[in-house]
Amino acid sequence: MLRQAILAIAPMLTATGCLLPPDNDILQFEDDFEACDLCGWATTGDVRRVSTYHPAEHAMALAPGARAATSLGIVRNAAESGWESDDGNWVELSTDCVGPGALDLVPDGAGGLVVAVTLDDRARAPFARHWLNFPPLDPEVAHRFTALTLTTATLPCQVDNLQIRISGGTYAY
Amino acid sequence: MRTSLAAAALVVAALAATAIADELAPPGATAPTLAVAEAPTTPPGRGPRLQLALSGDLRITRLDGTAGRFVDDAMAYGWRIAQARPLYGLGVDAHYLWTPVVDVGARVGYLTQDYAAGTDPEDRMGIAWTTVAASARLHWAKGRPFIPEPRLDVGLARQTWTVHGQDDHATRSFVRVGVDWRLGTRTAGAMLSIAYTLSDRPAVEGPAPPVGGLDLAIGPYVRY
Fold first, then answer.
1. What's the pTM?
2. Which chain B residues are closer than 8 Å to A53 by Cβ?
Protein backbone atom coordinates (compact mmCIF):
# COMPACT_ATOMS: atom_id res chain seq x y z
CA MET A 1 0.00 0.00 0.00
CA LEU A 2 2.78 2.39 0.95
CA ARG A 3 4.69 1.49 -2.17
CA GLN A 4 1.68 2.24 -4.32
CA ALA A 5 1.24 5.57 -2.59
CA ILE A 6 4.85 6.44 -3.25
CA LEU A 7 4.55 5.50 -6.89
CA ALA A 8 1.44 7.59 -7.16
CA ILE A 9 3.00 10.76 -5.80
CA ALA A 10 6.36 10.39 -7.53
CA PRO A 11 5.49 12.37 -10.68
CA MET A 12 3.88 15.08 -8.58
CA LEU A 13 6.92 15.50 -6.36
CA THR A 14 9.18 15.57 -9.36
CA ALA A 15 7.08 18.25 -10.96
CA THR A 16 7.02 20.39 -7.83
CA GLY A 17 10.77 20.43 -7.59
CA CYS A 18 11.11 18.46 -4.38
CA LEU A 19 13.80 16.49 -6.11
CA LEU A 20 16.81 18.69 -6.36
CA PRO A 21 18.46 19.12 -9.71
CA PRO A 22 21.78 17.31 -9.88
CA ASP A 23 24.92 19.40 -9.63
CA ASN A 24 26.45 17.18 -12.28
CA ASP A 25 25.71 13.94 -14.03
CA ILE A 26 26.39 11.98 -10.86
CA LEU A 27 24.33 13.52 -8.07
CA GLN A 28 20.77 12.46 -8.79
CA PHE A 29 19.08 12.95 -5.44
CA GLU A 30 19.88 14.97 -2.35
CA ASP A 31 18.07 15.81 0.86
CA ASP A 32 19.68 17.73 3.72
CA PHE A 33 16.36 18.06 5.60
CA GLU A 34 16.68 21.83 5.79
CA ALA A 35 14.06 23.06 3.35
CA CYS A 36 10.99 21.76 5.13
CA ASP A 37 9.72 19.29 7.70
CA LEU A 38 10.30 15.95 5.98
CA CYS A 39 8.53 17.12 2.86
CA GLY A 40 8.24 14.38 0.31
CA TRP A 41 8.73 11.63 2.86
CA ALA A 42 6.13 9.07 3.82
CA THR A 43 6.82 7.63 7.24
CA THR A 44 5.88 4.65 9.33
CA GLY A 45 6.63 4.65 13.04
CA ASP A 46 8.38 7.44 14.91
CA VAL A 47 10.22 9.55 12.36
CA ARG A 48 10.99 13.19 13.10
CA ARG A 49 13.05 16.08 11.89
CA VAL A 50 15.48 17.11 14.63
CA SER A 51 18.22 19.67 15.17
CA THR A 52 21.71 18.28 15.53
CA TYR A 53 24.86 20.29 16.30
CA HIS A 54 23.39 23.70 15.32
CA PRO A 55 19.86 25.09 15.44
CA ALA A 56 19.91 25.36 11.65
CA GLU A 57 21.27 21.89 11.05
CA HIS A 58 18.56 19.26 10.83
CA ALA A 59 18.45 15.56 10.32
CA MET A 60 15.88 12.80 10.08
CA ALA A 61 15.63 10.79 13.28
CA LEU A 62 14.18 7.30 13.00
CA ALA A 63 13.17 5.39 16.09
CA PRO A 64 13.71 1.62 16.22
CA GLY A 65 11.49 -0.13 13.70
CA ALA A 66 10.63 3.06 11.83
CA ARG A 67 10.59 3.50 8.10
CA ALA A 68 10.74 6.51 5.80
CA ALA A 69 10.28 6.53 2.06
CA THR A 70 10.46 9.08 -0.69
CA SER A 71 9.88 8.90 -4.38
CA LEU A 72 12.60 9.12 -6.99
CA GLY A 73 12.68 9.80 -10.67
CA ILE A 74 16.12 8.53 -11.57
CA VAL A 75 16.79 6.75 -14.83
CA ARG A 76 20.11 5.13 -15.60
CA ASN A 77 20.13 4.80 -19.34
CA ALA A 78 21.58 1.86 -21.20
CA ALA A 79 25.23 2.27 -22.04
CA GLU A 80 25.99 4.24 -25.17
CA SER A 81 29.51 2.94 -25.34
CA GLY A 82 31.08 -0.35 -24.49
CA TRP A 83 33.31 0.88 -21.73
CA GLU A 84 30.58 1.65 -19.22
CA SER A 85 30.61 -0.74 -16.30
CA ASP A 86 28.05 -2.13 -13.93
CA ASP A 87 29.62 -0.26 -11.00
CA GLY A 88 29.83 3.34 -9.85
CA ASN A 89 26.41 3.91 -8.31
CA TRP A 90 25.97 4.53 -4.63
CA VAL A 91 24.08 6.12 -1.73
CA GLU A 92 25.87 8.57 0.56
CA LEU A 93 24.60 9.47 4.00
CA SER A 94 25.79 10.87 7.32
CA THR A 95 24.48 8.98 10.31
CA ASP A 96 25.14 8.44 13.98
CA CYS A 97 24.70 4.72 13.63
CA VAL A 98 28.09 3.13 13.61
CA GLY A 99 28.07 1.66 10.14
CA PRO A 100 26.52 2.26 6.74
CA GLY A 101 23.95 -0.50 7.00
CA ALA A 102 22.87 -2.42 3.92
CA LEU A 103 21.46 -1.53 0.52
CA ASP A 104 19.20 -3.59 -1.67
CA LEU A 105 17.43 -2.94 -4.93
CA VAL A 106 13.89 -4.20 -4.72
CA PRO A 107 11.54 -4.41 -7.73
CA ASP A 108 8.57 -2.13 -7.25
CA GLY A 109 6.28 -4.29 -9.35
CA ALA A 110 5.98 -1.70 -12.08
CA GLY A 111 9.29 -2.14 -13.80
CA GLY A 112 11.22 0.13 -11.49
CA LEU A 113 13.50 -0.41 -8.54
CA VAL A 114 13.24 0.73 -4.95
CA VAL A 115 16.53 1.64 -3.28
CA ALA A 116 16.08 0.05 0.15
CA VAL A 117 18.56 1.08 2.85
CA THR A 118 18.54 -0.74 6.18
CA LEU A 119 20.46 1.31 8.72
CA ASP A 120 23.12 -0.23 10.91
CA ASP A 121 21.86 -1.61 14.22
CA ARG A 122 25.12 -2.58 15.93
CA ALA A 123 25.80 0.62 17.89
CA ARG A 124 25.61 4.39 17.82
CA ALA A 125 28.56 6.69 17.27
CA PRO A 126 29.39 10.30 16.37
CA PHE A 127 28.14 11.33 12.96
CA ALA A 128 30.17 9.84 10.14
CA ARG A 129 29.89 9.72 6.37
CA HIS A 130 29.05 6.36 4.82
CA TRP A 131 28.78 5.01 1.32
CA LEU A 132 26.60 2.15 0.18
CA ASN A 133 27.31 0.73 -3.25
CA PHE A 134 24.54 -0.45 -5.50
CA PRO A 135 24.66 -4.04 -6.57
CA PRO A 136 26.10 -4.47 -10.07
CA LEU A 137 23.78 -3.03 -12.70
CA ASP A 138 23.70 -4.44 -16.22
CA PRO A 139 24.97 -1.54 -18.35
CA GLU A 140 23.14 -2.83 -21.40
CA VAL A 141 19.77 -2.27 -19.76
CA ALA A 142 18.07 0.91 -18.61
CA HIS A 143 17.21 1.06 -14.92
CA ARG A 144 14.60 3.21 -13.33
CA PHE A 145 14.75 3.97 -9.62
CA THR A 146 11.38 4.97 -8.30
CA ALA A 147 11.75 5.19 -4.50
CA LEU A 148 14.20 5.32 -1.64
CA THR A 149 13.42 3.77 1.72
CA LEU A 150 15.26 4.02 5.04
CA THR A 151 14.57 1.47 7.75
CA THR A 152 15.86 1.01 11.27
CA ALA A 153 15.95 -2.24 13.20
CA THR A 154 16.69 -2.18 16.92
CA LEU A 155 18.56 1.11 17.30
CA PRO A 156 17.46 4.67 16.63
CA CYS A 157 19.42 6.46 13.91
CA GLN A 158 19.74 10.00 12.67
CA VAL A 159 20.39 10.55 8.98
CA ASP A 160 21.46 13.72 7.19
CA ASN A 161 22.82 14.85 3.83
CA LEU A 162 21.41 11.89 2.03
CA GLN A 163 22.47 11.52 -1.60
CA ILE A 164 22.15 9.09 -4.47
CA ARG A 165 24.89 9.20 -7.07
CA ILE A 166 24.61 7.41 -10.38
CA SER A 167 27.77 7.66 -12.42
CA GLY A 168 27.16 4.93 -14.91
CA GLY A 169 30.56 3.52 -14.19
CA THR A 170 32.45 6.76 -14.63
CA TYR A 171 33.17 6.95 -10.92
CA ALA A 172 33.15 4.38 -8.19
CA TYR A 173 33.53 4.16 -4.50
CA MET B 1 74.48 103.77 52.13
CA ARG B 2 70.92 102.76 51.77
CA THR B 3 71.83 100.98 48.59
CA SER B 4 74.53 98.96 50.39
CA LEU B 5 72.11 97.97 53.11
CA ALA B 6 69.56 96.81 50.60
CA ALA B 7 72.14 94.71 48.76
CA ALA B 8 73.33 93.19 52.01
CA ALA B 9 69.74 92.32 52.95
CA LEU B 10 69.26 90.56 49.62
CA VAL B 11 72.45 88.53 50.11
CA VAL B 12 71.37 87.48 53.60
CA ALA B 13 67.96 86.47 52.33
CA ALA B 14 69.53 84.43 49.56
CA LEU B 15 71.84 82.64 51.96
CA ALA B 16 68.95 81.88 54.25
CA ALA B 17 66.97 80.43 51.38
CA THR B 18 69.91 78.25 50.32
CA ALA B 19 70.35 76.98 53.83
CA ILE B 20 66.72 75.90 53.99
CA ALA B 21 67.04 74.05 50.68
CA ASP B 22 70.12 72.25 51.90
CA GLU B 23 68.40 71.18 55.06
CA LEU B 24 65.54 69.65 53.09
CA ALA B 25 67.78 67.78 50.65
CA PRO B 26 69.55 64.52 51.57
CA PRO B 27 73.12 64.96 52.77
CA GLY B 28 75.44 65.66 49.89
CA ALA B 29 72.62 65.92 47.39
CA THR B 30 72.85 69.64 47.01
CA ALA B 31 76.11 71.50 46.58
CA PRO B 32 76.29 74.69 48.62
CA THR B 33 76.10 77.75 46.49
CA LEU B 34 76.10 81.44 46.89
CA ALA B 35 74.41 82.15 43.63
CA VAL B 36 71.75 84.75 44.10
CA ALA B 37 69.81 84.71 40.87
CA GLU B 38 69.73 81.46 38.82
CA ALA B 39 67.38 80.91 35.97
CA PRO B 40 64.44 78.86 37.24
CA THR B 41 64.63 75.25 36.03
CA THR B 42 61.60 73.82 34.27
CA PRO B 43 60.33 70.39 35.39
CA PRO B 44 60.94 67.57 32.89
CA GLY B 45 58.04 67.26 30.45
CA ARG B 46 55.57 64.36 30.89
CA GLY B 47 55.82 61.71 28.21
CA PRO B 48 52.85 60.24 26.38
CA ARG B 49 50.40 58.47 28.62
CA LEU B 50 47.88 56.97 26.22
CA GLN B 51 48.50 54.78 23.22
CA LEU B 52 45.90 53.97 20.57
CA ALA B 53 46.52 51.36 17.91
CA LEU B 54 44.52 50.07 14.97
CA SER B 55 45.50 46.75 13.46
CA GLY B 56 44.63 44.43 10.65
CA ASP B 57 44.44 40.96 12.18
CA LEU B 58 44.99 37.51 10.76
CA ARG B 59 44.53 34.40 12.86
CA ILE B 60 45.91 31.12 11.56
CA THR B 61 43.27 28.75 12.90
CA ARG B 62 45.02 25.77 11.37
CA LEU B 63 47.27 25.96 14.44
CA ASP B 64 44.31 25.64 16.80
CA GLY B 65 44.36 22.25 18.46
CA THR B 66 40.83 21.49 17.28
CA ALA B 67 41.36 22.33 13.59
CA GLY B 68 41.92 18.78 12.43
CA ARG B 69 38.94 17.47 14.31
CA PHE B 70 36.72 20.19 12.86
CA VAL B 71 37.63 19.24 9.30
CA ASP B 72 37.07 15.56 10.00
CA ASP B 73 33.71 16.18 11.69
CA ALA B 74 32.47 18.57 9.01
CA MET B 75 33.33 16.20 6.20
CA ALA B 76 31.82 13.32 8.15
CA TYR B 77 28.61 15.26 8.53
CA GLY B 78 28.35 15.87 4.81
CA TRP B 79 29.89 19.26 4.09
CA ARG B 80 31.61 19.01 0.73
CA ILE B 81 34.46 21.37 1.57
CA ALA B 82 35.80 22.07 5.07
CA GLN B 83 38.99 23.88 5.96
CA ALA B 84 40.41 25.62 9.01
CA ARG B 85 40.80 28.87 7.11
CA PRO B 86 42.38 31.95 8.72
CA LEU B 87 40.15 34.42 10.48
CA TYR B 88 40.69 38.00 9.38
CA GLY B 89 39.48 41.35 10.64
CA LEU B 90 40.35 44.46 12.61
CA GLY B 91 41.35 45.29 16.15
CA VAL B 92 41.61 48.46 18.21
CA ASP B 93 43.88 48.80 21.24
CA ALA B 94 43.86 51.49 23.91
CA HIS B 95 46.61 51.33 26.52
CA TYR B 96 47.51 53.54 29.42
CA LEU B 97 51.30 53.70 29.65
CA TRP B 98 51.52 53.05 33.34
CA THR B 99 55.15 53.64 34.18
CA PRO B 100 57.53 52.18 34.91
CA VAL B 101 56.95 48.71 33.50
CA VAL B 102 53.35 47.91 32.62
CA ASP B 103 50.90 49.20 30.04
CA VAL B 104 47.32 48.39 30.87
CA GLY B 105 44.33 48.76 28.60
CA ALA B 106 41.72 47.09 26.50
CA ARG B 107 41.32 45.64 23.07
CA VAL B 108 38.26 45.17 20.92
CA GLY B 109 38.32 43.16 17.73
CA TYR B 110 36.28 41.59 15.00
CA LEU B 111 37.26 38.54 12.98
CA THR B 112 35.31 36.54 10.44
CA GLN B 113 35.68 33.67 8.01
CA ASP B 114 33.80 30.91 6.15
CA TYR B 115 34.88 27.44 7.10
CA ALA B 116 32.82 25.05 5.02
CA ALA B 117 30.61 24.84 1.97
CA GLY B 118 27.92 22.41 1.04
CA THR B 119 26.94 20.85 -2.26
CA ASP B 120 25.64 24.27 -3.16
CA PRO B 121 28.76 26.43 -2.95
CA GLU B 122 26.66 29.32 -1.64
CA ASP B 123 25.65 27.24 1.38
CA ARG B 124 28.36 28.21 3.87
CA MET B 125 29.33 27.67 7.47
CA GLY B 126 30.84 30.87 8.87
CA ILE B 127 32.06 32.44 12.07
CA ALA B 128 32.07 36.03 13.28
CA TRP B 129 34.11 36.58 16.42
CA THR B 130 33.65 39.89 18.23
CA THR B 131 35.88 40.37 21.26
CA VAL B 132 36.58 42.64 24.17
CA ALA B 133 39.56 42.00 26.38
CA ALA B 134 41.60 43.45 29.21
CA SER B 135 45.22 43.76 28.28
CA ALA B 136 48.58 44.16 30.01
CA ARG B 137 51.95 44.62 28.36
CA LEU B 138 55.42 44.85 29.83
CA HIS B 139 56.73 48.30 28.98
CA TRP B 140 60.42 47.76 28.91
CA ALA B 141 61.48 48.95 25.48
CA LYS B 142 61.92 52.49 26.90
CA GLY B 143 62.10 54.05 23.50
CA ARG B 144 64.54 51.55 22.07
CA PRO B 145 63.39 50.28 18.68
CA PHE B 146 62.29 46.75 17.93
CA ILE B 147 62.32 45.42 21.45
CA PRO B 148 59.58 42.78 21.88
CA GLU B 149 57.23 43.54 24.73
CA PRO B 150 55.34 40.56 26.18
CA ARG B 151 51.62 40.96 26.34
CA LEU B 152 48.63 39.15 27.85
CA ASP B 153 44.97 39.62 26.91
CA VAL B 154 42.08 37.99 28.74
CA GLY B 155 38.61 38.49 27.38
CA LEU B 156 35.22 37.41 26.18
CA ALA B 157 34.04 36.85 22.64
CA ARG B 158 30.61 37.01 21.15
CA GLN B 159 30.59 34.20 18.63
CA THR B 160 28.11 34.22 15.79
CA TRP B 161 28.10 30.85 14.09
CA THR B 162 26.17 30.79 10.84
CA VAL B 163 24.99 27.55 9.28
CA HIS B 164 22.62 27.40 6.31
CA GLY B 165 22.07 31.14 6.69
CA GLN B 166 20.92 30.99 10.31
CA ASP B 167 22.89 32.44 13.20
CA ASP B 168 23.62 30.85 16.54
CA HIS B 169 25.19 32.99 19.26
CA ALA B 170 27.45 31.99 22.10
CA THR B 171 29.75 33.73 24.55
CA ARG B 172 33.25 32.31 24.72
CA SER B 173 36.26 33.15 26.85
CA PHE B 174 39.81 33.33 25.61
CA VAL B 175 43.39 34.11 26.54
CA ARG B 176 45.84 35.70 24.13
CA VAL B 177 49.57 35.59 24.85
CA GLY B 178 52.25 37.12 22.69
CA VAL B 179 54.58 40.00 22.01
CA ASP B 180 54.32 43.46 20.47
CA TRP B 181 56.99 45.24 18.49
CA ARG B 182 56.73 48.99 18.26
CA LEU B 183 58.33 50.42 15.13
CA GLY B 184 58.29 54.19 15.29
CA THR B 185 58.84 57.20 17.45
CA ARG B 186 57.58 58.03 20.91
CA THR B 187 54.42 59.44 19.44
CA ALA B 188 53.55 57.43 16.32
CA GLY B 189 54.56 54.50 14.20
CA ALA B 190 53.61 50.95 13.38
CA MET B 191 52.90 48.11 15.76
CA LEU B 192 53.59 44.47 14.96
CA SER B 193 52.08 41.72 17.09
CA ILE B 194 52.43 37.97 17.23
CA ALA B 195 50.35 36.06 19.71
CA TYR B 196 48.61 32.78 20.31
CA THR B 197 44.94 32.65 21.26
CA LEU B 198 43.47 29.87 23.34
CA SER B 199 39.70 29.67 23.67
CA ASP B 200 37.43 27.56 25.83
CA ARG B 201 35.96 24.37 24.44
CA PRO B 202 32.64 24.83 22.67
CA ALA B 203 29.71 22.83 23.96
CA VAL B 204 28.97 21.31 20.59
CA GLU B 205 28.62 17.70 19.52
CA GLY B 206 29.69 18.10 15.95
CA PRO B 207 31.90 20.18 13.71
CA ALA B 208 32.84 23.21 15.81
CA PRO B 209 34.94 25.72 13.85
CA PRO B 210 38.33 26.45 15.40
CA VAL B 211 38.61 30.04 16.63
CA GLY B 212 42.01 29.98 18.33
CA GLY B 213 45.41 29.94 16.74
CA LEU B 214 48.37 32.10 15.88
CA ASP B 215 47.58 35.82 15.58
CA LEU B 216 49.45 38.18 13.33
CA ALA B 217 48.58 41.87 13.55
CA ILE B 218 50.01 45.04 12.08
CA GLY B 219 48.82 48.62 12.11
CA PRO B 220 49.52 52.19 13.10
CA TYR B 221 49.67 53.59 16.62
CA VAL B 222 49.68 57.04 18.10
CA ARG B 223 50.54 58.22 21.58
CA TYR B 224 49.24 61.21 23.45
1. 0.74
2. 77, 204-208
Q: Any chain B CB within 8 A of the CB of A161? A: yes
- B180 Cβ contact partners less than 8 Å away, ≥ 6 residues apart: B137, B148, B149, B151, B191, B192, B193
Domain spans in chain A, listed from the N-terminal domain onward: 23-166
Q: Note whether B164 contacts A34, CB cutoff 8 Å.
A: yes
Best of B164, B166, B168, B204 to substitute, by most chain A Cβ atoms within 10 angstroms, is B164
ipTM score assigned to the predicted complex: 0.74
**CA quadruple A133, A54, B211, B201: dihedral positive or negative?**
negative
CA distance B161 to chain A (A): 9
Homologous superfamily of the A23-166 domain (CATH) = Galactose-binding domain-like (2.60.120.260)
Inform me whether the pLDDT recorded for B31 exceeds 60.
no
Over residues A100-128, mean pLDDT: 93
- The mean pLDDT of chain A is 83
Chain-centroid distance, C-alpha A163: 6
* Cβ contact B78–A57 (<8 Å): no
